[in-house]
Design a protein that fits this description.
Muramoyl-pentapeptide Carboxypeptidase, domain 2, globular, alpha+beta, 17% strand, 172 residues, 4-stranded antiparallel β-sheet
Amino acid sequence: MINKELENLTRDELIDLIEIYSKHWLAMDGVWFQSVEAEYGMDEAMRHDENIWRQFTVIEAKRIRQFLNLPENSGVEGLTKALRYRLYANINTDEIIADGNTVIFRTLDCRVQNARAKKSMTFHPCKSVGIIEYGGFAKTIDSRFETECLSCYPELTDDTCSCAWKFTLKTL
């Protein structure tokens, strides 16, 4: 362990610190995005965001898979479990519904969209990034998953959530 101070923290303090670290990660993500957006516009910021998520989602999924000791193709059970350990899971309110060979993941309360709304900014058009992010995450957990966007800004079709994604495990 690098930081010996963590050994002195209680369980509750460690949980609080995980939430703080998750908020810091998201703040950093938002700060760089808004900097590019302000300087070069939304299209350029989205292009960079897509490139970053193409790499980051795989890193995050691999580390979670390793932490949870999930086999490479761990199916619906593995994806359902892994989604609960993403950084977003500490700061967004989500719902996961597993049924047969499908998983529906819904973000009920999104910190990113809430922050943009508080600043009177347009919502982040996250569908294109979400396809990369969620699709890459699911395929890293199990390469047999196909990902479908059910609802995501700018194409919201479900006003009961910020976004919704469907993962289908394709088997032979």
